[in-house]
Amino acid sequence: MEDCIFCKIVRGDIPSFRVYEDEKVFAFADINPISTGHTLIIPKRHSRDLWEIPEDDLSAVHLASIKIIRAIREVLKPTGVACVQLNGPGANQVVLHYHLHLVPRMEGDPELPVATWEIREGDMEAVKETARRIAAAVG
Ligand code: AMP
Ligand code: ZN
């Protein structure tokens, strides 16, 4: 899709910190991370949301999440990882290209709101370095 920011990331028209890629899926660091290692997984083919995404893309995204969540555990040793996925503006979906958030949780982290977190720009060097380490662990 021409104007979609995540399609632009898939095409390489705008930069991203890539964590994982295969034929159907692209994963990269969220630039406004809720926590260290906050990662997004998207289908390369544009779909807006869970209502629209074809089953093969949906399963590819979630199969990739297994690889990435293992890498996150290895690199960051979180106490948990929240998988968050929002559908539609009413659920605060801001980028209308299907995406699965992987949000590592650490001991003592503040409670994670389901759909109303504050957007705060991350430290880009730290975001890049963490993405590099997770990518290396995905293999
Ligand atoms: P959602 O509310 O589920 O649509 O969340 C969209 C997410 O995309 C937010 O967490 C943003 O920080 C993230 N985001 C937006 N633009 C970019 C970008 N260019 N690179 C990485 N993450 C982005
Ligand atoms: Zn798109």
Task: Please tell me about this protein's structure.
By secondary structure, the protein is of the alpha+beta class. It has a single domain (5-138), classed as HIT family, subunit A (2-Layer Sandwich). It is built from 3 helices and 5 strands, in the order αβββαββα. The chain has helices at 5-11, 55-76, 124-138, and strands at 18-21, 25-29, 39-43, 80-84, 100-105. A 5-stranded antiparallel beta sheet has the order 1-2-3-5-4. Helix 2 crosses helix 3 (124-138). It is globular. The structure holds adenosine monophosphate (AMP) and zinc ion. Adenosine monophosphate is lined by residues 5, 16, 30-32, 40, 86, 92-95, 119.
State the low-pLDDT regions, or none: none
Tell me the span between the first and last alpha carbons.
29 Å
Summing up helix and strand content along with how strands pair, one would put the structural category as: alpha+beta
Gyration radius, to the nearest Å? 14 Å
Total count of helical runs of at least 4 residues: 3
By CATH, the superfamily comes out as HIT-like
Q: Output the strand order for the largest sheet.
A: 1-2-3-5-4
Q: Give the CATH class.
A: Alpha Beta
Overall pLDDT: 95
Morphology: globular
